[in-house]
Amino acid sequence: MFHYKSISQVVKLFAMSSPNITYISNFYSQEESIEMFTKLSKCPFKQPINKVWGKSYRPLRKSCSYGDMDLEYEYSGHCELALPWNRTMFKIKSDVEKKTGFEYNFVLLNFYESGHAKIGAHKDDEPSLDQTVDIATLSFGVCRDTIFSKKGCKSVRQALEAGSLLLMHDQKEWTHAIPPQPCVKEARISLTFRRVWSSLQQILDEMERDYSIPPCKRLRRE
What we know:
The protein is an alpha+beta fold and 222 residues long.
């Protein structure tokens, strides 16, 4: 039988085989969650056109986004142009920032009409994302599961309850997905808060990378 040399060795092994996340089940109360879901249901959701491996498709889920002025976020060949913050979204953003200690300038909303809507395994590692800021996901409506996977490790399934907050820290080695759950007949709305670099900052980063110019101080929106 193998014996660990130290407790630190056990902790290190556990960290390697578990996704680096924090889950808060009751970030919003049941009453607040119902109220939020009703308000968010009126958002201008549209079905995006995504592109994977050169092929375009329309997922069953719908999406929309809010953020700072003229901010764009591109993923899976689809570009989301952020709508300006409204009172509801700004209130939610402030609540999340107060809890996490991070400042967010963009939120992506996904509307899952039923358990047939899903998201395949992926990493939120787009170049436009500030990887030093945790991605924060709020869930409203019916409870759905997310699955974290890593090569060589057992997958981890986490239920996302209404009113819950999920923080994804360093996820370089883990993918996450919302699998189909045909038995689920009700809707879910998720809000994923991120820190997105402006177009100017992305250009500076590309220049730094392509021409090896001295590192530029990152720009922050005031």
